[in-house]
Design a protein that fits this description.
Blueprint (H helix, E strand, L loop, with lengths): L13 H6 E2 L21 E6 L4 H8 L3 E7 L2 E6 L3 H7 L4 E7 L18 H4 L2 E2 L3 E2 L1 H14 L4 E8 L1 H4 L6 E7 L17 E5 L7 H17 L4 H9 L1 E5 L4 H8 L56 H13 L19 E6 L4 E3 L13 H14 L4 E3 L1 H4 L7 H9 L2 E6 L15 H21 L18 E4 L3 E3 L6 E7 L10 E9 L5 E6 L5 E5 L10 E7 L8 E9 L6 E9 L1
Parallel strand pairs: 10-11, 10-12, 12-15, 13-14
Antiparallel strand pairs: 1-5, 2-4, 2-5, 3-4, 6-7, 8-9, 9-11, 13-15, 16-24, 17-24, 18-23, 19-22, 19-24, 20-21, 20-23
């Protein structure tokens, strides 16, 4: 799946423009060679690695391969020496981006506080992202304020805490309208369970913020929002906002220049940002595929399958929450009445992924249901891609979603949240992007998934449009003057939160006796014009009856949209019959 990209690793907006140097090669030219490495993975390399052997060889050599693809190319993060390593490994690599290392001051507090209060709730970095302390304080505050809905669970210790070297508890919250037996750590629950996890890869900070907002969305709207009230009356929602707190502690030490730590903290002797084990390559399901045995590589899988404290704790919790409904080979299905969904949120590349990740040559026994749900989720997000990892990125084993389905039969997904370009793209989008862009896209996906937890394998249904949105049409006729000025037809949108989808359908019906005379533009509320159709002297057919797919992700949905049509040649006439926008 081709995806245009230019990764953004430093702060968004003016700070990036001032602090980042973008280097690119012209076609047929070698890219400039970096002369000095900034602290951390400052370079992004474009590497020719088609799906199949080349992609797997790249992962097998332990490079930090980003979860995004552009046609035949993958992208690798690293310091100035990584380009040489790539070329020595036989890969064609050019610099796609290099970011200067800005100065930063670590936050005052580092390790988990003994008690939580207003100070911990306000503890943030990089413009508003919550530290581990703030996330945990939030869990306690929610449970205290909404005791009939929320229960906080300590399900283990991080690696550093097991070593007596600081570290954190591993914490989850269960949210439901509690009756006797709810939120108990037993697989025989009366209610289905929807489990949401953020920041397994520590540097993927969007996912922790989505988890924070999801918790608030549920508890603050119970009793007033009928959809959320129904979900919490019938379903347990489990949220782990930070699955890798030691890693996030390293990230937050960067303050306004977060450290791009991917792994946990179990390791030493590597350069800044490279110690640790990749917790999404550490499980026993497909262990060893698409990962590295070298401790300083970003995809280091650990000394053995399920070796890490964080991995073991999550697996123990999942076994307590879900009965084992699947035994046998990779194609053996879980029973159709299996309940529950487990979601691991990652970033970035706007994808919905599902098992098997270790191989795309093998489908699960529940592939049709998983694929159908993934399609629904992707549509709700505005046109994301979806598929098994090897179908759209590369094969990688040892992931949590593969393990959950493999061991328990529970429907499991990975969401790769985020664009690869722009101020809201990359690992470190501006904090304002969470409210303006990512939360509006992800919220409908979460609501859909929560409702599917009761019967994920029982068939798929078309997802509803986000509240206030849907298809909007103007069917008033507008005459198009022959070889005259442009005319417009308007649609006013209100009640839609956030930006338009990347794949917005624009349905156009124009009656005209020579459609090649007609030029058609969609004009956004801010005045930006998107060309839908050019004129063509050779197109003599009648009428325009077409649905165009337009990337409007940079545009707010609300406002007045105009279809602008102009007849640019003589002798033929027509009119705008109708047109529609679907958000």
């Amino acid at each position: 799946m081709a995806r245009q990209r230019r990764a953004v690793l430093t702060a968004a907006g003016a700070a990036v423009a001032a602090g980042a140097l973008l280097l690119g090669a012209l076609p047929g030219q070698a890219a400039p060679t970096p002369t000095a490495a900034a602290a951390g993975p400052a370079y992004i390399y474009r590497v020719h690695a088609p799906l199949g052997k080349a992609a797997q060889d790249l992962l097998g050599q332990g490079f930090d391969v980003l979860e995004t693809r552009d046609g035949q190319d993958l992208f690798v993060a690293g310091d100035a020496s990584v380009g040489d390593r790539l070329r020595r490994g036989g890969f064609s690599a050019t610099v796609d981006q290099v970011a200067q290392a800005p100065q930063w001051t670590p936050p005052a507090k580092r390790w988990q506080a003994n008690s939580f209060g207003a100070a911990e709730l306000a503890d943030t970095y990089y413009g508003g992202y919550r530290t581990v302390n703030a996330q945990y304080a939030h869990l306690d505050a929610v449970a205290q304020q909404y005791p009939a809905l929320a229960t906080v669970v300590d399900y283990g210790d991080s690696w550093r805490k097991t070593q007596g070297a600081g570290g954190y508890d591993l914490r989850a919250i269960c949210i439901t309208k509690k009756v006797s037996g709810d939120c108990a750590r037993t697989p025989n629950s009366a209610k289905p369970r929807f489990f949401v996890m953020g920041q397994l890869h520590a540097r993927e900070i969007t996912t922790g913020d989505v988890a924070y907002r999801w918790i608030d969305e549920l508890v603050t709207n119970y009793g007033t929002n009928t959809e959320i009230t129904s979900i919490l009356d019938t379903t347990e929602i489990w949220v782990v906002p930070i699955a890798n707190p030691d890693g996030v502690d390293i990230v937050q030490q960067g303050g306004n220049s977060p450290v791009l730590q991917r792994k946990n903290a179990h390791g030493s002797g590597c350069s800044t940002g490279y110690n640790g084990v990749d917790l999404n390559r550490n499980t026993s399901s497909g262990y060893g595929t698409g990962s590295s045995s070298s401790p300083c590589d970003e995809t280091y899988r650990g000394t053995a399958a399920n070796s890490e404290a964080e991995t073991k704790a999550l697996q123990a919790l999942w076994k307590e929450l879900y009965p084992d409904r699947r035994d046998g080979g990779m194609s053996v299905p879980a029973p159709a009445d299996t309940k529950g969904i487990v979601l691991s949120m990652h970033s970035y590349s706007n994808l919905v992924l599902f098992p098997w990740g270790s191989t795309s040559a093998q489908k699960t026994g529940n592939d049709a249901s998983l694929r159908g749900m993934a399609k629904d989720m992707a549509q709700l997000a505005g046109g994301w891609g979806y598929g098994q990892p090897g179908e759209v990125l590369y094969n990688a084993g040892g992931s949590t979603d593969d393990w959950v389905y493999d061991e328990l039969g529970v429907a499991s997904f990975v969401w790769e949240i985020g664009n690869s370009s722009g101020s809201c793209g990359g690992f470190l989008p501006a904090f304002s992007c969470q409210q303006s862009t990512w939360w509006p896209k992800v919220k409908p996906m979460l609501l859909y998934s929560a409702k599917k937890a009761a019967n994920p394998y029982g068939g798929t249904t078309p997802p509803p449009p986000p509240p206030g949105c849907g298809k909007k049409t103007n069917d008033a006729d507008v005459a198009i003057p022959d070889a005259g000025a442009a005319v417009t037809s308007s649609i006013t949108v209100s009640g839609c939160a956030g930006n338009a989808p990347a794949g917005t359908p624009v349905e156009v019906h124009i009656k005209h006796t020579w459609r090649g005379d007609v030029v058609v533009d969609l004009v956004a509320p801010d005045g930006t014009a998107y060309r839908l159709k050019n004129s063509s002297a050779n197109d003599s057919a009648d009428n325009v009856d077409t649905t165009y797919t337009v990337n409007l992700s940079s545009e707010a949905m609300n406002g007045t949209w105009n279809l602008k049509v102009q007849d640019v040649a003589r002798y033929d006439t027509g009119n705008i019959d109708s047109w529609s926008l679907t958000f």
